[in-house]
Specification:
Blueprint (H helix, E strand, L loop, with lengths): L1 H17 L2 E3 L8 H20 L9 H10 L4 H29 L7 H23 L4 H12 L8 H9 L6 H32 L13 E3 H26 L29 H9 L3 H13 L4 H4 L11 H21 L7 H34 L1
Antiparallel strand pairs: 1-2
Helix pairs in contact: 2-4, 2-8, 3-4, 4-9, 5-6, 5-8, 10-11, 10-13, 10-14, 13-14
């Protein structure tokens, strides 16, 4: 029985890693999946070792991080690797989603793959936010206070929900303990979702740049694509090493090196850079409840793409109008990142409102309209 189980496991590994047929024309843009998997493994490993020395106590949390940095053997490497890999995780994830948007990877028969991927994105953001609170610096404390307070906008039981999350009447020991527990456990749930993501992808195989079926022109995963993945993996490790050893705090906020002080509010409360677009959407809407709905809706709206893209052509490779619309969307996303880091004053508020309106219009109006126009032109041509 044991030999049979080993044999089944080897067959599964062979099916997914060695003999899995992949389209011959996929480019390096398809390498972000392996990079994301590597980041997740790095985060879990470094997170386990960091948890051995971290204290989830408001009086000791900041000091325990200092202890890791100064006293634990090679603790600073663990901390900086964990912190910087989080940023690279989101860089690769945003590229991965952008590639899916450009090449139409969300269209049938890969709707399930896209749906699981969207859930992974949302869960990753939640995990990152929880982790950002743990060092208990100024940005950690005030970020947790501001973001959790948003739930008070929920009618009737909003304030009760906030206090349930806090475990008290403000961000305190109970809050830190809950955030630490969830931050430790959620990556394992993420790993399970990643496996489900790969299983659903394996059913129909990867999409390809041309957006057409390529069942007759496929290569085995190994050695053709495993070595291609290794190129980007080695480059990632090189760049990550440069950040860890030479620029470890470039992607972080300097205020988080100040211990949390409930009596002193920072000049500007902002989340980490990878959450800025959604923070900008939240701030662009004056009504608190509508702002919270818009922030969560800006992520959940990805789920409707398979149903609102009416075009019979997959991807943007042969769709000039969709190419233009895609790059406008990319520019809009970078504008939202910029606006999220600015003070909520004129003209930043107005720019944020326009960028937010375009963000939602892209999914609800622009993508369906372009699909209908293209289908109409194709029918006329035929």
């Amino acid at each position: 029985m044991r030999l049979l189980k080993q044999h089944v496991l080897l067959r599964l590994l062979n099916s997914y890693i060695v003999d899995s047929p992949q389209p011959a024309n996929i480019s390096y843009l398809w390498n972000f999946g392996s990079l994301l998997g590597t980041c997740l493994i790095l985060q879990i490993i470094t997170g386990i070792f960091l948890a051995m020395h971290y204290c989830a106590n408001i009086d000791l949390a900041f000091l325990s991080v200092e202890h890791i940095m100064r006293d634990v053997s090679n603790g600073w490497i663990l901390r900086y690797t964990h912190a910087n890999t989080a940023s690279f995780f989101f860089i690769f994830m945003y590229f991965h989603v952008a590639r899916g948007l450009y090449y139409g990877s969300y269209k049938a028969p890969r709707v399930l793959v896209w749906g699981i991927g969207t859930i992974i994105l949302i869960l990753t953001m939640a995990t990152a936010f929880l982790g950002y609170v743990l060092p208990y610096g100024q940005m950690s404390y005030w970020g947790a206070t501001v973001i959790t307070n948003l739930l008070s906008a929920v009618p009737v039981f909003g304030q009760d929900l906030v206090e349930l999350i806090w475990g008290n009447f403000s961000v305190d020991n109970a809050t830190l303990n809950r955030f630490f527990s969830l931050h430790y456990l959620l990556p394992f749930l993420l790993a399970a979702l990643v496996i489900a993501h790969l299983l659903s992808l394996h059913l129909h195989g990867s999409n390809n740049p041309n957006g057409v079926g390529s069942n007759s022109d496929r290569y085995a995963m190994h050695p053709y694509f495993t070595f291609k993945d290794l190129v980007t993996l080695f480059f990632f490790f090189l760049v990550l090493s440069i950040f860890v050893f030479y620029f470890p705090n470039t992607l972080g906020h300097p205020d988080n090196w100040i211990p949390a002080n409930p009596m002193s509010t920072p000049n500007s409360i902002v989340p980490e850079w990878y959450l800025l677009p959604f923070y900008a959407i939240l701030r662009s809407i004056p009504n608190k409840l509508l702002g919270v709905i818009a922030m969560f809706g800006s992520l959940l709206i990805l789920l409707i793409l398979p149903y609102v893209d009416f075009s019979r052509i997959r991807g943007s490779q042969f769709r000039p109008l969709m190419k233009i619309a895609f790059w406008f969307f990319v520019v809009d996303f970078f504008i939202l990142i910029w606006i999220g880091s600015c003070h909520p004053n004129t003209p930043y508020v107005e720019i944020g409102q326009v960028a937010t309106a375009f963000y939602f219009a892209w999914f609800i109006v622009i993508v369906p309209t372009i699909g209908i126009i293209e289908n109409t032109l194709m029918d006329i041509a035929n």
